[in-house]
TrEMBL record:
Keyword Amino-acid biosynthesis attributed: no
Protein family (similarity comment): Belongs to the adenylate kinase family.
Name recorded for this polypeptide: adenylate kinase
InterPro entries: Adenylat/UMP-CMP_kin (IPR000850), Adenylat_kinase_CS (IPR033690), P-loop_NTPase (IPR027417)
Keyword terms of this UniProt record: ATP-binding, Cytoplasm, Kinase, Nucleotide-binding, Transferase
Gene Ontology molecular function, alphabetical: AMP kinase activity; ATP binding
Lineage, opening ranks: Eukaryota, Metazoa, Ecdysozoa, Arthropoda, Hexapoda
Gene Ontology cellular-component terms listed: cytoplasm
Highest taxon listed in the record's lineage: Eukaryota
Enzyme Commission number, as recorded: 2.7.4.3
Amino acid sequence: MAPIDTSKTPIVWVLGGPGSGKGTQCEKIIAKYGFTHLSTGDLLRAEVKSGSDRAKCLTAIMERGELVPNDVVLDLLKEAIIARAGESKGFLIDGYPREKSQGIAFEKSIAPVTVIIYFEASTDTLTKRLLGRAASSGRADDNEDTIKLRLKTFLQNNDLVLAQYPEKIKRINAEDSVDSIFNQVQQILDPLVAA
């Protein structure tokens, strides 16, 4: 039995490369639709702060520079969804799944995804945006070579994720203005919420 009824509470995966503007669009979606925004990064940081036994284990993994195991990330997502299932109008899962196996595990242990919104932009656009962000934020990992490598890794994994759900993907041209991108988003979400 899935922990939530997705006919009443849609689950939306929001995917897009670094610099695709999905953070901005997530904020607009939350403001308009009141969806619950779950970012795996936020969930992990909150868990680490909680000081639980799991937090000690996670801290050790991150300090070694390793990736947190998929099953831990999935448990955190599942717990967050169950905790909010009663009052949530929908779930916005941000930047997850990052790889094919994560998508399969999510659907098996939580619920099928309702729709996948993919913010698509060319590598050139993403690189320019990230370089612009680096100039203002001074983030050390935002130099051109690192950015190109991050984008390449993202795109390789993302293509495998998308290939699994041809009928659930809605591609959005993320090269457009913020408002015109949000118009495209609303065309996808309005019918889900009306149902």
